[in-house]
Design goal:
The structure is a single chain. This protein has 315 residues and is α/β, with parallel strands linked by helices. The protein folds into two domains: 2-115, 2-Layer Sandwich (Alpha-Beta Plaits), CATH 3.30.70; 149-309, Vaccinia Virus protein VP39 (Rossmann fold, 3-Layer(aba) Sandwich). 31% of the residues lie in helices and 29% in strands. The strands form three sheets. The protein has a seven-stranded mixed β-sheet with strand order 10-9-8-11-12-14-13, with helices on both faces. Strands 2-3-1-4 form a four-stranded antiparallel β-sheet. Helix 8 runs parallel beside helix 9. It is globular, with a radius of gyration of 19 Å. GO terms for molecular function: protein-lysine N-methyltransferase activity.
Length: 315
């Protein structure tokens, strides 16, 4: 079977947005080759793999998607190019945004992206590993999240996901109820279960993301009871929880703010990421206006994460 490979040259800050664009256009799998990921690994002398064995870019990033013969790629290319160019209006620099295509054989697609993924220690307690690696914990308390990067929107290595995972470690005490808004690969829900969150419902507007999340949840028995389903943010949701997590674009976080407020119990946490530096003030202002108290601002490269909570009656 012939597949068509569609590649987009872009920047570190735009890789997840570009991945979503390609997935929403019908891709069966996406791989990301990001120079920033390799630089991050280089800075970690305790890493568990030989960095010299990892193929990598030295600058920028390339997002590559694979489309089956049932998708007529020339028909969807103009939309892909237009949506990539429009990312600038959301404050994301996707330049150069060059889109190229080539045909690949079935066996090439099946393994092409696997060489880019290895076990990576994300936080003190959380390690993300591709599903085909037989990785075992090497330190007490280390939890292993298994993902299939062939389906995933995010595999835990992007700064926005790492900020979210760090925030979860900071606030989770155990037994919480949580909404994961814009779940993508489901990685945050899986991590939250490892950290002790009790009940989780994961939402995503995109049916492809929901299917990906369900597949990854199935790879991690600890997350067997997580419910993943399509929904537009928290529209129509009116069941209070202790924790709302959202790793999405700043422009989408802003309309989520009042919905999170409505669905959080007093003292409940609102964790947001996916915020490029120059959009931080907009997100913080929206949360403060709603009544949230800002507890911490997390930073990694050009990205920011916000830990906020809904005040109790005593505050």
């Amino acid at each position: 079977m012939q597949w068509t490979e569609v590649s987009v040259l872009t920047t570190n800050e735009a890789v997840e947005a570009v991945s979503n664009i390609l997935q929403e256009a019908g891709a069966s799998g996406v791989k990301i080759d990001d120079a920033a990921d390799y630089q991050h690994l280089q800075a970690r002398p305790d890493e568990i793999l030989d960095l010299g064995d990892i193929p990598h870019r030295t600058t920028g990033a390339e997002v590559t998607a694979y489309y089956p013969a049932t998708v007529f790629v020339p028909e969807i290319l103009p939309t892909i190019k237009q949506r990539v160019n429009e990312l600038a209006s959301f404050g994301l620099n996707a330049a150069p945004g060059k889109v190229t295509t080539q045909a690949v054989a079935d066996e090439s697609w099946a393994t092409a992206w696997q060489k880019y993924y290895h076990p990576v220690r994300i936080t003190r307690y959380l390690t993300v590993t591709p599903s085909w690696e037989d990785y075992q914990p090497v330190q007490p308390g280390e939890q292993v999240i298994r993902l299939d990067p062939g389906m995933a929107f995010g595999t835990g290595t992007h700064p926005t996901t790492q900020l979210s995972l760090t925030a979860l470690e900071m606030v989770v005490r155990g037994g919480e109820r949580m909404y994961d808004v814009g779940t993508g690969s489901g990685v945050l829900s899986i991590a939250a279960k490892f950290l002790g969150v009790d009940q989780i419902t994961a939402f995503d507007l995109d049916d492809v993301a929901v299917r990906s999340a369900k597949a990854n949840l199935a790879l991690n028995p600890v997350a067997a009871d997580v419910v993943a389903k399509p929904n537009d943010l928290l529209n129509g949701i009116h069941q209070p929880v202790d924790l709302v997590v959202a790793n999405i674009l700043a422009e989408i976080i802003v309309p989520l703010v009042p919905q999170a407020w409505e669905n959080l119990t007093p003292g409940g946490y609102f964790l947001t990421s996916g915020i490029i530096a120059d959009k931080l003030e907009t997100v913080v202002a929206a949360q403060k206006k709603q009544g949230f108290i800002i507890d911490n601002i997390l930073q990694m490269k050009d990205w920011r994460g916000v830990i906020a909570h809904k005040p109790t009656e005593d505050e």
